[in-house]
Design brief:
This protein is α/β, with parallel strands linked by helices. It folds into 2 domains: 13-188 and 230-254, NAD(P)-binding Rossmann-like Domain (Rossmann fold, 3-Layer(aba) Sandwich); 202-225 and 258-297 and 315-350, UDP-galactose 4-epimerase, domain 1. Helices cover 40% and strands 16% of the residues. A 7-stranded parallel beta sheet has the order 3-2-1-4-5-6-11, with helices on both faces. Helix 4 runs parallel beside helix 5. The structure holds nicotinamide-adenine-dinucleotide. Nicotinamide-adenine-dinucleotide binds next to helix 1, strand 2, helix 4 and strand 5.
Length: 351
């Protein structure tokens, strides 16, 4: 197989676990653009082959349908790969609250399978973690060494943060004790085309509701804030961090620049898409289960990633909303979810 090499990037053979998912599929396309050979390992539980439709026939991509819970599958998929981007995970608050055991198994045992296979094959690893590890810490700007403020471990809501924290600790211990070349990124509410709202992701959910002319359902009082980052800003930074030897054993925040409340986000979506929808506040107890806890605020300090690889979130939220809406329409995801796009006509006209 011939591998073309782009200037400044030694072409590699990369394994992307979770490569058929939202972030993973954008990463696969980016790596192919850099000249890499790419192996995708995904069980298609929340991801979809459709996400990779644009590269399915690419001569440098190999798809492996299987689970990171199976060490043999992981070992085979990693064969002759020299680096691993580990994204496969049980993701999404709704999924985690409803199926905590599944989340714990995939996010802890699955990750350890990936890390041990990487040591055996002397492959480097980028572990994709999450801002959820900071829990309820509402600091003005969360640095990577900020304290974790987590709720009761018996609340399933915290199992995702707990498992991802253990993943990071595993990665660091393998780095320090076994010499694994691993670095970590913590994503903060990454958004963009192909993200699905099915598992509780707020932005595609609200955009879908606005397109259908349904009320935009905002949980709690809506004053909880987040900093959304665009997938096209985050993915190149992930690759640059993986390549940088100074990142070994380190964690890097990759988040957005603008803090916005979910209520304001809903109104911005309605304005941007010229939707006739209204906003409806839903108590957390109704949205999830009694006792559900959310973070009031989550604001990243991106300085460390900026200083290492020049990371800067540039894409505006408005342009992301437009692109997510266009994606939902073109892929007819909403249609397949059995909801007609009644409110989409005016937006369609603007495309
Ligand atoms: N999108 C975000 O805002 C965000 C924020 C923080 C962290 N992350 C992390 O980024 C990574 C990718 O998330 P995403 O948003 O693209 O979600 P996603 O659900 O689209 O991607 C996860 C992928 O992993 C696959 N997968 C799940 N279990 C698997 C298993 N046992 N074996 C093999 N594949 C499996 C799914 O099919 C899916 O394709 C995850 O590790 C997630 O924790 C994402």
């Amino acid at each position: 197989m011939t591998v073309s090499v782009y200037p400044g990037h030694g072409a590699r053979r990369s394994l992307v676990t979770g490569g058929a998912g939202f972030v993973g599929s954008h990463l696969v396309e980016h790596l192919l653009g850099l000249g890499d050979e790419v192996v995708v390992l995904d069980d298609l539980s929340t991801g979809s082959a459709r996400n990779l439709a644009g590269v399915a026939d690419h001569p440098r991509v190999t798809m492996v349908h299987g689970s990171i819970l199976n060490p043999l599958t992981v070992g085979e998929a990693m064969q002759s790969c020299d680096r691993v981007f580990h994204l496969a995970a049980a993701v999404g608050v709704k999924l985690i609250v409803e199926q905590p055991l599944r989340g714990l198994r995939i996010n802890i045992h699955g990750t350890e399978n990936v890390l041990t296979a990487a040591i055996e094959r002397q492959a480097s690893v980028l572990l994709v973690s999450t801002s959820e590890v900071y829990g309820k810490n509402t600091a003005d700007r969360l640095r990577e060494d900020a304290d974790r403020v987590l709720g009761d471990p018996l609340l399933s809501r915290w199992t995702y943060a707990g498992a991802k924290g253990i993943d990071e600790a595993f990665a660091k211990a393998y780095c320090d004790q076994e010499g694994l070349d691993v670095s970590i990124v913590r994503l903060f509410n990454t958004v963009g085309p192909r993200q699905t709202g099915r598992y509780g992701m707020v932005l595609p959910n609200l955009v879908g509701q606005a397109l259908r002319g349904q009320p935009l359902t905002v949980f709690g009082d809506g004053l909880q804030t987040r900093c959304f980052s665009a997938v096209e800003d985050v993915v190149p930074a992930m690759v640059r961090i993986e390549r940088d030897p100074r990142a070994r054993g380190q964690a890097y925040n990759l988040g957005g620049a603008r803090e916005i409340s979910i209520l304001d986000l809903a109104h911005e979506i309605i304005r941007t898409l010229d939707s006739r929808s209204v906003v409806e506040l839903i108590p957390y107890d109704q949205a999830y289960a009694p006792g559900f806890e959310d973070m009031r605020r989550r604001v990243p300090d991106n300085t460390k990633a900026h200083d290492l690889v020049g990371y800067e979130p540039r894409t505006s939220l408005t342009s992301t909303i437009m692109r997510v809406a266009a994606d939902l329409l073109s892929r007819e995801r909403l249609g397949s979810d059995a909801m007609p796009l009644a409110g989409a006509d005016s937006f369609r006209g603007a495309l």
